[in-house]
Each structure stands twice: as C-alpha cells, then as structure tokens.
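Blinded run. Sample ID left blank on purpose so nobody reads anything into the name before looking at the predicted structure. Input follows.
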Amino acid sequence: MINRVRPSRLLTWCQNQTRGYRGVDVTNLTSSWRDGLALCALIHRQRPELIDFDSLNEEDVARNNQLAFDVAEREFGIQPVTTGKEMAARAEPDKLLMVLYLSKFFEAFRKSSLNNNGLSL
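Blinded prediction complete.
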C-alpha cells in the first residue's frame, strides 16, 4: 500500500531539503522541478557523493532530470515517472506525477539522519 502524503506537507519537506542550493527555489510541485536542479539537490542533500551539484547547468534541463532519474532509480529504487527529454519538452511537469514521484523520495529519506526537521506527513 502506498502511503498518501498531503501535497502541502510534501512541499514543505521538499523546501526544507533543497534550501540553500544554487538556482533552486521550490515554491510548488510543478514548475519548480522542471529544470532538474531541485531533484538533483534533493538527492545531493542525502548522498552528496552521487551528484556533483556544482557542475550542473540549469539550462541543460534534459540532462539534469535524466541524471536525477537515473541516480534515484539506481541508488534508491525509485522508478522514474518520465524522461529527461519529456521534462525539457513540457512547460511544467504534471502535478500528480510529481507528487507521486516526490513522495517516493520522502519515503526513502524519512529515516535518514539528515532528515532532521521532524516533519511528519
């Protein structure tokens, strides 16, 4: 059974996890994620050795997203909901898909010592 996470709580958790990253300003669960930097920041916060965040180019939307999708699948077993090219082709990602995808990160990371904000969803 999939745990349902309220989108407002998920947004707050994502904002806390990505705060302080260059070029990342998570204000919603759609367009804030389009360039892939927020996804890479979410992974980097937990496992910085997996992504060289400083080398990312915010203009390379397809590459950033594909990198995040590939790393999340390989390291955490989180199946991608789309491709990097599809993210680049859209004005903004589908909210339902992003809520489902980001909820999987919450589930994977919530027991981490780095997830110390105590936010329960």
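Unblinding after everyone has recorded impressions. Residues 116-121 have pLDDT under 50 and may be disordered.
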